[in-house]
Design brief:
Layout (H helix, E strand, L loop, with lengths): L14 E5 L11 E8 L14 E4 L3 E5 L18 E6 L8 E4 L18 E3 L6
Parallel strand pairs: 4-6
Antiparallel strand pairs: 1-2, 2-5, 3-4, 6-7
Length: about 130
Amino acid sequence: MLTGCASSPQPPAVGVWELSNVDEISAESTTLHLGVVRLECSGGKTGTVLDPEVTNEKDRIVIRTDVEPLQEGAYTCLGNDTVPLTVELSEPVGQRELVDAACLQGRAVTTTFCTDHGVRWSPQQEE
């Protein structure tokens, strides 16, 4: 009898994001335009961004933008391209911060992407 090891699917990779339309954000906004970048080295390509996870909280809206895992191999660290992504919120931003979930825990926390603790917009910016 032959047995083999089935490879388990790779987990999604971390994507960090910035607002492409930061000057257009207001308390009434429900559409966000993001630029997503893969955190890990991948030869300059971010790849496919998965459907974002949006969590509405009392004081903030947390958005996670994972990307598809890479194929096995060695990749250079050229700085990855930015992939545009539009996020439609189920309710207006209101008086809540917009926060990148990748900056709350995990590898991205100590990177330059997260020096602002993941806060990409706050109501104070509107004033």
